[in-house]
Specification:
Elements (H helix, E strand, L loop, with lengths): L31 H14 L4 H9 L11 H34 L2 H36 L5
InterPro entries: MobC_2 (IPR045788)
Protein name: MobA protein
Organism: Bacteroides xylanisolvens
């Protein structure tokens, strides 16, 4: 009964404060052509934040330009999609073979499996062609590693 109502000790909560926060802001006015050129430089730099890019340019930090070939990106995306399609064909192939054995008689299933085998041979030839194209692409566009 003689206890005082002492408030419960609580943690500070929230994100810990930065040691050296960036609090000063600067503004620059650019023309349309200067702004377009600035954005081009920013995109080529590969820096994650615009403020980091500006600070690096002002204080003459190392400036890296990373160029990506749009055709290479497109090729890789199409190749990934093609790989996904091949995987789905493999899943469907297993389902078809299982269904053939359960639904049809042995003779009918064997004749259909023969046709399926011929189509599989064609897909394998296309796959070899894709691998050849990939090797050509590597030789042409990717630099050789020492």
């Amino acid at each position: 009964m003689n206890q005082k109502n002492v408030p419960r000790a609580r943690g500070k909560g929230g994100r810990p404060p930065k040691d050296n926060p960036a609090t000063h802001r600067l503004t620059v006015n650019l023309t349309d052509t200067q702004h377009a050129e600035f954005l081009t430089l920013y995109e080529q730099s590969g820096v994650a934040s615009l403020s980091g890019f500006i600070a690096a340019r002002i204080f003459e930090a190392e400036f890296r330009v990373i160029q990506t070939d749009a055709s290479a990106i497109d090729f890789v995306m199409k190749l990934s999609a093609f790989y996904g399609q091949i995987r789905s064909v493999g899943v469907n192939y297993n389902q078809v073979v299982k269904q053939l054995h359960t639904t049809f008689g042995e003779k009918k299933a064997l004749s259909m499996l023969y046709k399926l085998e011929q189509q599989t041979i064609e897909i394998a030839q296309i796959g070899r062609g894709v691998l050849t194209l990939c090797e050509e692409f590597k030789g042409k566009f990717l630099p050789e590693q020492p």
